Design the sequence.
């Protein structure tokens, strides 16, 4: 009896170990393939902004900048919307509306990113271009709004990422709000709070988890490739303007990977992949840590 | 209670397993098969000749249904890289391989010129007809020194045309491209500053501009962006009705890209063709020559390990160099000079296919 | 009097807040409606019989279709499921049965990490492992990349669902003298099976829409191919190639492809929703 249970544990454990092995293999393979570039450029790789395949000089700064800029922009736009949705669905909506609304937000998450990209090229970019050309010239003096009205650029990328991130952040925020004990809200109402104040109290209680939800959305935005590469302009420059075409880490890999003509070029691209891997690992780990910490504060838990 | 559960489990497993085997029930196709059985050859590379190649591969497949040549236009840089990695059987490029690249290859590689093409400057300036450019003005535009359409440098070349005060949006390739190679090769010949600042390669560090993927991406961006300037293969401009300008050649004439002006560019080079066919014909001397012309090459290993595919590809190239050339002019490519074709046929004999 | 005004001000603030939340729902709905509208209207016009029955034609010729791409996507997701279902489901079983152990925490951490890895990075990994050593782009490499993406989704869903199975069932089986293996295989997993299958279907729908990991693994193929060792076309990669091109005909086909993709995803989501609702219904009986 015992041995058969052990056999079961080992057998199933083997498959579970395969999962762990795959993650380790990814980290190892990325490091191995980028070793040439790591050895050549060292820490300067993260600080130089020249990306010159001809001269063999590779610096990842423009891509790190582009990824962070676009993801933070997406976060700034999506967070209020996502939290608003989460609050509406969990606190304010009539019960009958709840399931359809949840379904609709899930639909947003389910649309493939290439379809977002398609819509981005043909609908969003011309719209942003219209926005840029109809802006008064005085505004164009600001560095944030300068540059020719291309349509493709940071703003389009930020907008599309924001739309893609909203369902993730709102789903997790909704789950987090569900775990706030009813007692909290009842206490607030008992003290004469308005809807707003009671919800604010609940959100304050759940703040760790909500920050975790926002970070999860951030992690999602960091890794998005297709939709971004179709609307961002693919120009490796560090620019402040929302209208400037820029580049992200995932977009440069998608564009240049199949043709990295020499070993150093390929290693540089894989190193960017490694950087992306590490950054998303940290962000996701942090966000899950926050959500888990919040879960630990609960005296009662819904799941076993 | 267990019986219905068990049958449900069996049903579920059947569903999962059959969905996993999805459409994969067919036999895997052999790439190296005896003659008569289907051969699939994978190639990748330049987007520049994609329209004529896709026509050729389809026509050849109609003639020889057992030979399927799958070509993906990922850019010349990609073609070279994948060929060196041996993940594709043949490559295609408009920028010849460098000596270092050839040395790093696992075996000797042949460059086989297939057609002649032209790179044209396309632009999207509403209200303006045909524009004239010179190499140095184009170089300055791509260096970011000429920033607006109504700059006197452009106006001087186009008297009588009202140019708007719009900013010039430069469009270039975001991927490694032979089209880029041809273009910067020409610009480096006419502008010393461009040569030092940017240089010649399939992928360069552009001082300004927006990147599009493939000839397709650049044409797409220019069509959609008013005030933009880009460079693409002639057929992409003519098929999509994008305005393209004339360029001043070495003899001082303003020439538009046509099959005739491109053929003239090759005439000089044909007389002194090097044995490995790697030659640049940009900025060629002579009357009526279009200055941004180039050969485009197929890259093949001289001693392929897969003999059946090697034989199939050699047969295809012989067809393309003879019967296939008749499809060229309709698609805006210039057929090869006969002297070059003869040299190539003998080069093909050196590929070991048995 | 001051307290009255403050109360009124607070009430107004609260109403504004409620309004803002409702507004955010609408703000989220707008792009969704926009996208679906475009995909349906543009795609529907281009959905001809040619689209489903023909392979791509040379540039500039009419009548091309995406038959090879549709079959390619089916094959790739099928391959992915073959890899991901065993590893994912059994990992999920391990996670739920041996919850408290340290190894389970390691596995859970690995699953969550894998979930967050950008799909392009997985493509790079699959290129290094399944394309370079064999010197061949292939459907297998593409299937591997997609399979790796499915594993954490299936593992976590399976774990969650197995945990939902009432403890009474588990204890009952064990009390009757079943080994762990037997209890899991014949009682616990079957009880959670509809949910597990739902999870698998959702994971399939998710990877069917992936493009980045296929760009340098399954590559692309202009011809119809049913071989595992050759490059294969897929709806997503074909969509990408067509979208960035300047050809009107290709743009039309791209919208049609988008419509097909979105329809599949929608159908899977609805089916999953209904299945979960039914599951909960059955459970409550």
Sequence:
């Amino acid at each position: 009896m015992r041995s058969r249970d052990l056999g079961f544990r080992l057998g199933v454990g083997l498959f579970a170990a395969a999962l762990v092995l795959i993650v380790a293999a990814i980290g190892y393979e990325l490091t191995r393939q980028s070793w040439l570039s790591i050895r050549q450029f060292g820490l300067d790789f993260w600080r130089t902004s020249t990306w010159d395949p001809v001269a063999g000089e590779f610096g990842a700064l423009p891509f790190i900048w582009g990824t962070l800029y676009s993801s933070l922009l997406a976060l700034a736009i999506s967070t209020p919307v996502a939290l608003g949705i989460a609050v509406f669905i969990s606190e304010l909506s009539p019960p009958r509306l709840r399931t359809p609304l949840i379904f609709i937000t899930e639909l947003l998450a389910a649309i493939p990113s290439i379809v977002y990209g398609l819509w981005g090229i043909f609908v969003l970019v011309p719209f942003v271009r219209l926005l840029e050309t109809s802006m008064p010239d005085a505004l164009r003096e600001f560095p944030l709004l300068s540059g020719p009205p291309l349509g493709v650029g940071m703003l389009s990328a930020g907008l599309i990422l924001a739309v893609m991130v909203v369902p993730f952040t709102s789903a997790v925020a909704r789950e987090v709000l569900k775990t706030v004990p009813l007692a909290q809200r009842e206490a607030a109402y008992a003290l004469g709070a308005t809807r707003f104040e009671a919800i604010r109290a609940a959100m304050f209680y759940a703040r760790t988890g909500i920050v975790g939800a926002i970070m999860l959305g951030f992690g999602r935005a960091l890794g998005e490739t297709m939709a971004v590469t179709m609307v961002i302009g693919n120009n490796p420059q560090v620019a402040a303007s929302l209208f400037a075409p820029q580049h992200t880490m995932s977009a440069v890999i998608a564009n240049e990977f199949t043709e990295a003509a020499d070993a150093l070029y390929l290693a540089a691209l894989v190193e960017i992949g490694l950087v992306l891997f590490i950054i998303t690992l940290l962000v996701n780990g942090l966000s899950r840590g926050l959500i888990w910490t919040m879960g630990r504060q609960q005296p009662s838990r819904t799941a076993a | 209670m267990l019986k219905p559960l068990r049958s449900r489990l069996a049903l579920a497993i059947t569903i999962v397993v059959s969905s996993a085997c999805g459409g994969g029930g067919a036999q895997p196709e052999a790439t190296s098969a005896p003659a008569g059985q289907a051969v699939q050859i994978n190639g990748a590379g330049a987007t520049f000749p994609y329209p004529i190649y896709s026509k050729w591969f389809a026509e050849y497949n109609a003639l020889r249904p057992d030979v399927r040549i799958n070509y993906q236009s990922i850019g010349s840089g990609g073609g070279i890289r994948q060929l060196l990695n041996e993940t594709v059987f043949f490559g295609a490029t408009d920028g010849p391989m460098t000596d270092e690249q050839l040395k790093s290859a696992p075996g000797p590689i042949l460059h086989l010129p297939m057609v002649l093409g032209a790179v044209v400057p396309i632009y999207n300036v509403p209200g303006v007809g045909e524009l004239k450019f010179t190499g140095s003005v184009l170089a300055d535009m791509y260096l970011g020194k000429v920033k607006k359409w109504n700059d006197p440098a452009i106006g001087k070349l186009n008297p009588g045309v009202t140019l708007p005060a719009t900013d010039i949006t430069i469009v270039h390739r975001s991927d490694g491209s032979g089209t880029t190679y041809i273009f910067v090769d020409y610009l480096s010949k006419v502008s010393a500053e461009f040569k030092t600042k940017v240089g010649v390669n399939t992928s360069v560090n552009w001082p300004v501009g927006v990147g599009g993927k493939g000839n397709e991406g650049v044409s797409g961006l220019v069509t959609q962006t008013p005030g933009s300037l880009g460079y693409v293969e002639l057929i992409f401009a003519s098929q999509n009705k994008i305005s393209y300008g004339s360029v001043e050649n070495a003899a001082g004439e303003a020439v538009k890209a046509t099959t005739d002006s491109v053929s003239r560019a090759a005439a000089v080079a044909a007389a002194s063709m090097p044995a490995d066919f790697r030659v640049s014909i940009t900025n060629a001397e002579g009357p009526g020559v279009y200055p941004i012309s180039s050969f485009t090459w197929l890259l093949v290993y001289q001693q392929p390990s897969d003999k059946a595919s090697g034989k199939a590809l050699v047969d295809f190239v012989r067809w393309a160099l003879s019967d296939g050339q008749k499809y060229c002019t309709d698609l805006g490519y210039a057929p090869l000079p006969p002297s070059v074709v003869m040299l190539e046929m003998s080069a093909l004999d050196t590929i070991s296919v048995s | 009097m001051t307290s009255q005004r403050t109360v009124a001000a607070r009430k107004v603030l609260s109403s504004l807040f409620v309004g803002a939340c409702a507004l955010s729902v609408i703000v989220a709905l707008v792009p969704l409606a926009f996208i679906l509208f475009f995909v349906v209207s543009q795609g529907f016009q281009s959905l001809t019989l040619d689209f489903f029955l023909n392979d791509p034609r040379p540039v500039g010729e009419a009548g091309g279709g995406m038959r090879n791409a549709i079959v390619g996507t089916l094959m790739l997701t099928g391959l992915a499921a073959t890899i991901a279902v065993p590893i994912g489901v059994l990992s999920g079983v391990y996670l739920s049965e041996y919850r408290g152990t340290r190894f389970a925490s390691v596995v859970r951490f690995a699953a969550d990490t894998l979930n967050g890895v950008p799909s392009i990075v997985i493509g790079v990994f699959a290129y290094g492992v399944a394309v370079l050593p064999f010197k061949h782009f292939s459907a297998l490499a593409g299937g591997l990349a997609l399979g790796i993406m499915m594993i954490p989704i299936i593992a976590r869903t399976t774990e969650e669902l197995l945990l939902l199975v009432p403890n009474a069932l588990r204890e009952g089986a064990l009390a009757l003298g079943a080994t762990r293996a037997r209890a899991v295989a014949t009682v616990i997993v079957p009880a959670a099976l509809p949910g597990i299958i739902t999870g698998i279907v959702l994971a399939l729908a998710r990877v069917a829409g992936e493009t980045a990991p296929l760009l340098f693994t399954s590559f692309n193929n202009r011809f119809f191919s049913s071989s595992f060792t050759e490059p294969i076309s897929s709806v997503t990669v074909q969509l990408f190639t067509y979208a960035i091109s300047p050809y009107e005909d290709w743009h039309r086909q791209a919208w049609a492809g988008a419509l097909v993709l979105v329809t599949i995803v929608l159908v899977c989501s609805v089916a999953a929703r209904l299945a979960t609702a039914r599951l909960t219904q059955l459970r409550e009986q």
